[in-house]
Amino acid sequence: MTPAFSLCVYCGSRPGNSPVFEAVATEVGRWIGEHDGQLVYGGGNNGLMGLLADATLAAGGRVVGVIPAALVEREFAKRDCTELHVVENMHQRKSLMAERADAFLALPGGIGTFEEFFEAWTWRQLGYHAKPIGLLDTGGYYAAMLAFLRKSVSHGFMSEWQMGLITIGADAPSLLEKLVTDAGDAPQRMETSKI
Ligand code: AMP
User: Fold this and answer.
1) Residue 191: inside a domain, yes or no?
2) Measured in whole angstroms, how far is the alpha carbon of residue 110 from the centre of its chain?
3) Staple 71 to which of 76, 77, 95, 169, CB 3.0 to 4.6 Å?
4) Ligand 1: which of 10, 11, 49 to mutate, most ligand atoms within 8 Å of CB?
5) Ligand 1 site: residues with CB under 6 angstroms?
6) Could you tell me the pTM of the whole model?
7) CATH number, domain at 29?
């Protein structure tokens, strides 16, 4: 069965130190599964990544994991993904993840999550894709980062229209609903040749 939508989720390979983070990863995975969706993610079994994929599968969703061979060798791969793609390097991973997604969502995470979120955003501002990008600000985790981004606007390094390219929310179901709806209205082409 073709999934109703395909959502690329970036999140921590660690669980964080508050139960709210684990709870939100599970909530997002369950929502994807219950809405006949497909999760595209980094293919890992640790931290929020593993919880998210488990919850998606448990709720009947498809899970596409994309992981570099080096991480598979370190036994970080989640073997029971619906599709597990082992690629050569991080560039291939991120490009395939972006290609397979209708929209992007970042949950709480660390440096890997930040990098992936900012990359999807940068590709969007350059016009490489027109897919919606969401940031889930669980428990105000991203408040300081968002304040800094607004400072960047006030200091003239960013524009309001760039801020307008991301959708920020603290409530997972309403943010997911918006991303999926917006994805339906956006062209799905990803110009991976430009990356
Ligand atoms: P971080 O936010 O630093 O925990 O990194 C999470 C992101 O980086 C994920 O979305 C993955 O793409 C990648 N990543 C980092 N560590 C791992 C791991 N152990 N297994 C799989 N992917 C990982």
Assistant:
1) no
2) 13
3) 76
4) 49
5) 10, 12-14, 42, 44, 46, 49, 67, 71, 76, 109-113, 116
6) 0.95
7) 3.40.50.450
CA dihedral 122, 30, 36, 13 (to 10 degrees): 40
* 140 domain-assigned: yes
Total domain count, the chain? 1
Q: What φ, ψ does residue 177 adopt, rounded to 5°? A: -55, -45
Gap between the Cα atoms of 155 and 105, Å rounded = 27
Residue 28's domain comprises: 5-184
pLDDT at 190: 63
**Span from the CA of 109 to the centroid of ligand 1 (angstroms):** 8
Nearest alpha carbon to residue 35 among 59, 11, 68 = 59
Give the nearest ligand 1 atom to 94 CA: 12
Ligand 1 atom with the smallest distance to the CA of 90 is: 12
User: Does residue 60 lie within any of the structural domains?
Assistant: yes
Residue 89 lies inside a defined structural domain of this protein: yes
Q: Which residue has the tokens 């991976």?
A: 192
Among 8, 10, 13, which is best to mutate for testing ligand 1, by the most ligand atoms less than 8 A from CB?
13
Please report, in tens digits, the pLDDT of each residue of the chain (195 residues total).
Answer: 799 999 999 999 999 999 999 999 999 999 999 999 999 999 999 999 999 999 999 999 999 999 999 999 888 999 999 999 999 999 999 999 999 999 999 999 999 999 999 999 999 999 999 999 999 999 999 999 999 999 999 999 999 999 999 999 999 999 999 999 999 876 556 666 666
